[in-house]
Amino acid sequence: MMKEIIASEFEKEVLSSGKVILDFYSTECPPCEALASKFEDLSRLYGSDIKFLKIFRQQSRELAEKLGVKSSPTLLFFDNGIETGDRLTGGIKRSDIIRNLDKLISPAKAAEIKSGIKRSVSEYDVVILGAGPGGLTAGLYLCQAKINTVLIDIALPGGQVSTTHEVSNYPGFIQPQAGYMLSHSMSEQTKLCGTVYKVAVDVTGVDLDRKEVVIDEYETIRAKKIIIATGTTPNTTGASGERELKGKGISYCATCDAKYYDNKEVIVIGGGNSAVEEADYISRFASKITMVHQLDKFTANKKAQEKILSNSKVKVIYNSEPRAYIREGDKMVTEFENLINKKRERLVSDGIFIFIGMKPNIGLFRDKLELDRWSYIRTNEDMQTNLPDIFAVGDVTSKKYRQITTAVADGTIAAMAIAKELS
Length: 423
Hints:
Elements: E1 2-5, H1 10-15, E2 19-25, H2 30-46, E3 51-56, H3 61-67, E4 74-79, E5 82-89, H4 94-104, H5 107-115, E6 120-129, H6 133-144, E7 149-153, H7 179-193, E8 196-199, E9 203-207, E10 212-215, E11 219-228, E12 232-234, H8 242-245, E13 250-251, H9 254-257, E14 265-269, H10 273-282, E15 288-292, H11 302-309, E16 314-317, E17 320-328, E18 331-338, E19 344-349, E20 351-354, E21 358-360, E22 390-392, H12 404-422
Parallel strand pairs: 1-3, 2-3, 6-7, 6-11, 7-8, 11-22, 13-20, 14-15, 14-20, 15-16
Antiparallel strand pairs: 2-4, 4-5, 9-10, 10-11, 12-21, 17-18, 18-19
Helix pairs in contact: 6-7, 6-12, 10-11
């Protein structure tokens, strides 16, 4: 039900055909590997009505450039030669593919296809929820102990490390490491060891009492033990316009978006380690950075403060908080309030980056677990929670310091404790 084509066949197989989904893939591409099984499985379900095609991007550069395909994998949807639906790239979820496939066929046909999807159940010794450094390390230790383990993540492996531009304090590396390469190496080591990966999936249910996890609505995964390694997500300022302009002028990831502000002016909200370090990275691109911080001085480490304050591109506004974000034409306006005199002012820039801390990802199971006052999961010295057979590691746990090294340590401890219990 699936066919690979070359660039010279594009017009015949895609533009002169009916309903088509086309996958531009590359080799040595973890997101492509994560997509492959979903693409093949969906071709068996939808293949009678929609043509499933793959094309090797590295040998089809001219066609890719002509179509504006800039990353792998990229999924394109066509209806009678006209591109339709959404372009999907990166860590592509099954639900997003299905949503676009359903647009190509009638509602009745889509319902008929879904009625034929069989629910499946798989069993493992351990389920790890989250593929950041803590989860990856736990997976590595467990697979080396010959314990059947599956690692589940709603995104691709790596966690926040994969979007960190540079890591300079991870032991064993003399030179700073690109975050995406460090996380890639961790992920590949755990995968090659034998841990099963189910990534870029929708986690649609977690039952900690029954130790069951449901992904993509149709697959139930059961285990003897669960490790929660779901990490954190960026805090928001709560100012008006923030939600609407997320990804449309407001960003929470310097590694992802700083390159789009070459020789432009940006605002950075925050004054802790992440804000100061990411502002330093953004200064490689931006011509001017204005930092807005609610206190009268930064809370970042002294070395980072000294570096950013000596940067001629950086100006700091202290004792102030944003109150509104507005897009005016191709510019972004930040309305901020001085917390001392209550005066409001406007800053005009090309983009806004927000780095004001993180919050734990516990939405699917927060009512079951003992938490600290900030909603982080409490654990004992073996990383076990208040529930039997449920462990937690990494940034999602209650702890004083949240670093890659502390997450790796947590994963090690949990895995060794579980291995001992299961032996």
